[in-house]
């Protein structure tokens, strides 16, 4: 029997189940416990990055089980498969972080491989740790069959000495110990409550930022991103997602590439700006766009960031947590404020069946505290900006949400790696006013473009958060705060200006003018470039392949 959707189009899974020569395939399906009914139904792949390698992903298994129930209720046969998680929590501040961004590509590759080889008619994907979210979305776009993305949810904040705290407080506590402002006993008690439940980081860091982006692009059901990981309603929404995917499969879409368009990508970038989200979104959105066949670069994102007001007062630059946003209406409430501000392309379709504008229009009105109304923004432009200049001709990223000072000029203090910088910062071998430069950490040069939360949190913990600046061709965690500029392009290994700097060179940062310059004559930089040498490092097979294939951060650091 040929399986067809309601438009009369044959389904991909026919290649597995139809005809005399597929008797062996059907025999294998029967070995899994499937009978005629299950074999003759559409097939859905249920993707999970769940496991016990990080608290982020430990909430996924019951949500996957709920989605399976929804698919079965919708007349679709589910097939569960897993892909990897490289947890930033465990790989931070050592060479293991090189594999974090690499894992995004591995996840997308693995989804493409399984879904294509097994001819699934649709996909539902569960992710919770930073790179797993864009990785799953990228895989769905490659396969381009009816798909729904589901986020696993954030942890609840901890409670320490009468105030809510999160993991960034623990990171900064380490710096306070090195500065002599906190005892190791205090840090130990802080550590005990820093992450009190399973789930992703509790603020508007990378995971929550990309979950919000998924809703804004229409790949996720509305008001699912900010539900806490431990909330039972997540199971209900996962079951709803399974049922909805079954409908999409029978109806033939909309397909992911019909959802992820230039207009919906603009909505995602605007949502990042409106909430002071992670700078990593400017790396992941171009990569997602690339899989959708849409050109959407850092330059495009810069324009959106500059025209979008900051509307949500979220950690790390603001006061509130993911759970607080959920309690006042979640992502739809932000979208409503964006709609009022004229910052939303409202005609974009979504997996919900409504347009994004219809979802925003029906949403709870902004509460005025967690989410501001459009006539009372926290700032006139978004919480993340793009800088350019002689130090970053291809651009660089700075999160300005929460910054007290938007200009900085000072002498460069150059480090050849994150480890060198951490060693100097621990020993307080830097001065107020310095501009710390960490190079050789870009997509190719790292390789893998490591996050620098460890060193930035040390600086903040030492009370030097806005007294120095930090610039890198690597990237930052969504939890990073301060005058921290990442994604500098071209990177050092590509003979960018960051690779030519010397101690004492004066660096000028002007977040108002959006400029990042080194005050060294161009002729001098050319002379340095002529004398520049590079040192080859012996890399593992995975990193060697990645370094050979990966493109620039400006285009999303994709590998194909």
What does this entry look like structurally?
The protein has 560 residues and is an alpha/beta fold. It folds into 2 domains: 41-154 and 199-361, Rossmann fold; 385-555, IlvD/EDD C-terminal domain-like (Glucose Oxidase, domain 1, 3-Layer(bba) Sandwich). The chain contains 22 helices and 14 strands. The chain has helices at 14-17, 23-31, 36-40, 60-73, 88-91, 98-117, 132-143, 167-179, 184-193, 206-217, 233-251, 256-259, 262-274, 281-291, 298-307, 322-327, 330-340, 356-361, 418-426, 453-461, 522-530, 541-549; strands at residues 43-48, 77-82, 122-127, 147-151, 158-160, 163-165, 384-389, 392-399, 407-415, 435-438, 469-472, 484-489, 506-510, 515-518. Strand 5 and strand 6 form a beta hairpin.
């Amino acid at each position: 029997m040929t399986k067809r959707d309601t438009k009369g189009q044959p389904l991909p899974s026919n290649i597995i189940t139809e005809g005399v020569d597929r008797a062996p395939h059907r025999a294998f399906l029967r070995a899994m416990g499937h009978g005629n009914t299950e074999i003759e139904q559409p097939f859905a792949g249920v993707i999970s990055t769940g496991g016990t390698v990080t608290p982020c992903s430990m909430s996924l298994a019951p949500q996957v089980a709920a989605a399976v129930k929804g698919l079965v209720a919708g007349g679709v046969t589910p097939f569960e498969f897993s892909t990897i998680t490289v947890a930033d929590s465990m790989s931070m501040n050592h060479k293991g972080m090189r594999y974090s961004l690499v894992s995004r590509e591995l996840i997308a590759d693995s989804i493409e491989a399984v879904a294509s080889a097994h001819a699934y008619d649709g996909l539902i994907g569960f992710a919770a740790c930073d790179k797993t979210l864009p990785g799953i979305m990228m895989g769905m776009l490659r396969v381009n069959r009816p798909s729904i993305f589901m986020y696993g949810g954030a942890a609840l904040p901890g409670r320490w000495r009468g105030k809510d705290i999160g993991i960034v407080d623990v990171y900064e506590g380490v710096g306070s110990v090195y500065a002599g402002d906190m005892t190791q006993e205090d840090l130990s008690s802080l550590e005990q409550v820093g992450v009190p439940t399973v789930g992703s980081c509790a603020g508007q860091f990378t995971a929550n930022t990309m979950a919000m982006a998924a809703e804004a692009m229409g790949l996720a059901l509305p008001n699912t991103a900010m539900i806490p990981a431990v909330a039972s309603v997540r199971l209900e929404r996962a079951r709803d997602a399974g049922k909805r995917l079954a409908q999409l499969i029978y109806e033939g879409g909309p397909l992911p590439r019909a959802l992820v368009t230039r207009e919906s990508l603009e909505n995602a970038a605007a949502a990042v700006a409106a909430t002071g989200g992670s700078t990593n979104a400017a790396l992941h959105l171009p990569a997602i766009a690339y899989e959708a066949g849409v050109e959407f670069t850092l330059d495009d994102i810069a324009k959106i960031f500059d025209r979008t007001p900051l509307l949500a007062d979220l950690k790390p630059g603001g006061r509130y947590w993911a759970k607080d946003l959920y309690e006042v209406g979640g992502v739809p409430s932000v979208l409503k404020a964006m709609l009022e501000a004229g910052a939303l392309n409202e005609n974009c379709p979504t997996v919900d069946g409504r347009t994004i504008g219809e979802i925003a229009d029906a949403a709870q009105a902004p509460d005025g505290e967690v989410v501001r109304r459009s006539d009372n923004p926290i700032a006139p432009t978004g919480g993340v900006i793009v800088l350019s200049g002689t130090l970053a001709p291809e651009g660089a990223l700075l999160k300005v949400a929460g910054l007290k000072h938007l200009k900085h000029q000072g002498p460069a203090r150059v480090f050849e790696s994150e480890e060198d910088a951490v060693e100097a910062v621990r020993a307080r071998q830097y001065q107020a006013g310095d501009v710390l430069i960490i190079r050789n950490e870009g997509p190719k040069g790292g390789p893998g473009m490591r996050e620098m939360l460890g060193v930035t949190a040390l600086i903040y913990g030492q009370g030097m958060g806005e007294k120095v600046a930090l610039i890198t061709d690597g990237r930052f965690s969504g939890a990073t705060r301060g005058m921290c500029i990442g994604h500098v392009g071209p990177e050092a290994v590509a003979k960018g200006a960051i690779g030519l700097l010397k101690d004492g060179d004066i660096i000028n940062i002007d977040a108002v003018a959006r400029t990042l310059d080194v005050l060294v004559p161009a002729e001098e930089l050319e002379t340095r470039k002529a004398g520049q040498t590079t040192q080859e490092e012996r890399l593992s097979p995975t990193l060697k392949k990645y370094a050979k294939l990966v493109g620039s951060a400006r285009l999303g650091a994709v590998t194909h």
